[in-house]
Design brief:
globular; single chain; 17 helices; mainly alpha
Length: about 425
């Protein structure tokens, strides 16, 4: 099959899948043919596909090893659930929600600008003494810890860190006092048929952007790390996110953030999955995707050919984190609550297992394994005492029979060719 014919067929397949979303929603959710338990499994499969395909871009295609995907999902979940509960008024105030994100991003940008300025100032003395930036950074870290530890008891002039934090908070508060009434006023003129999907889309977009920002924050410092060291660093990041959420009363604390407006639409969940698959597929079969595959195979050789390995790795982290954030947002609004216990180490491990069993770089393999590993544990619930034993034995058997994954680096489409061949 020619490459042009393959692309033409793939485009028609995407269009057909999008067109079938709304008839599929009626069949699965509205017709009453399937009970709620089966519908729930189908919805969780769609969300799991989004999360797993986004991790495939990081682990399988760019060749990195991340154990922090649950952290990106948690950021997206809380970034969507909190404004949905506090400001959307049951998804009827899209402009109010947009105002919240504008205020939040403005405060984050102000803090980021201050941190970047400090970073540039720390680099200045290195021309006189190379270790100076590290020594100064450690000193500033101790200063900041003492500042925040004593902020509640004293208000000395040297406590600039806590006062800077209050200034950033004041930027957010001032913008919200202006934007929230304006958003409420103009949102009332929007019909419910438009405001509900608009709210949902705004939540998905900005939840993904916040997760992408976290991916950039993790991806850039992690450029010097590979293999197990990168896995440990990303695992630490995910645990930091979970502990912060667990310790923040505004986010529900250790119990959960409840009363989140529910969006349980099959069309939205699987529409997000289709968009994720198409975007990752397009990236893989593009010049940037070929660069990622080259870096995965041999980073030194790729660099000698003019490919920037750092750019490829960071791009994979940012895009993968974006779609992980949207998956977390979709899950939060489907469940109607966000619990920090869900986004623990095991959630990251389950996604890594899906990517590993699918095969490095196989997107359709990831979809297939995500369906199997979401459906299979539920079908084994009748064997409660032996369920995890049978599940583990099946995974071990698959790894022994197919050591390179279910499909290896091949796809079910494009005539079964590998990603490397299809992209060339």
């Amino acid at each position: 099959m020619k490459k042009s014919d393959s692309i033409f067929s793939a485009n028609w397949l995407v269009i057909a899948a999008l067109v079938m979303l709304w008839p599929g929603e009626w069949i699965i959710q509205r017709s009453g043919w399937l009970d709620d338990y089966v519908v729930r499994i189908i919805m969780l499969i769609g969300i799991r596909i989004t999360a797993a395909v986004s991790l495939q871009l990081i682990n399988g295609i760019s060749g990195q090893f991340s154990l922090g995907h649950a952290g990106f999902m948690a950021i997206g979940a809380y970034a969507a659930a909190y404004p949905a509960r506090e400001f959307s008024q049951q998804l009827s105030r899209p402009l109010s929600v947009l105002g919240f994100y504008i205020a939040l991003f403005s405060a984050i940008l102000a803090a980021s600008a201050a941190i970047y300025l400090i970073y540039r100032l720390l680099l200045l003395p290195r021309r006189f003494w190379a270790p100076a930036p590290v020594v100064l950074a450690l000193g500033l870290g101790v200063w900041a810890i003492l500042d925040f530890a004593m902020a509640a008891d004293t208000a000395a002039g040297w406590q600039i860190w806590s006062r800077g934090t209050l200034m950033v908070q004041q930027i957010y508060v001032n913008l919200m006092e202006w934007l929230l009434p304006v958003g409420d006023r103009f949102s009332q003129a929007i019909p419910a048929s438009v405001s509900n999907p608009a709210c949902y889309l705004i939540h998905l977009l900005f939840a993904g952007l916040m997760a992408a920002g976290a991916g950039l924050l993790v991806g850039v410092p992690a450029l010097r790390l590979r293999g197990d060291y990168l896995a440990i660093a990303t695992l630490g990041f995910a645990e930091i996110v979970r502990v912060i959420a667990q310790s923040t009363p505004a986010l529900g604390g250790a119990l959960a953030l409840i009363d989140v407006p529910v969006v349980d639409s099959f069309a939205w969940v699987y529409g997000l999955a289709i968009v994720t698959v198409v975007c990752v597929w397009r990236i893989v079969h593009s010049a940037r995707g070929r660069a990622m595959l080259a870096v995965r195979e041999d980073e030194i050789a790729a660099g000698s050919l003019g490919i920037n390995p750092a750019r490829s790795k960071v791009l994979a982290f940012v895009v993968g984190a974006f779609f992980a954030g949207t998956a977390g947002a979709a899950l939060a609004q489907y469940e109607g609550y966000v619990s920090p216990s869900y986004y623990d180490f095991m959630q990251s491990v389950e996604l890594v297992v899906i990517v590993t069993l699918a095969g490095a770089g196989s997107i359709t393999g990831t979809i297939l394994v995500a369906v199997i590993l979401t459906w299979l544990p539920e079908q084994l619930r009748g064997f409660e005492e032996y369920r995890m034993i049978v599940y583990s034995l099946l995974l071990i058997t698959l790894m022994l029979v197919r050591p390179n994954g279910l499909l290896g680096n091949r796809e079910l489409l494009l005539g079964g060719r590998s990603n490397a061949n299809a992209a060339s």
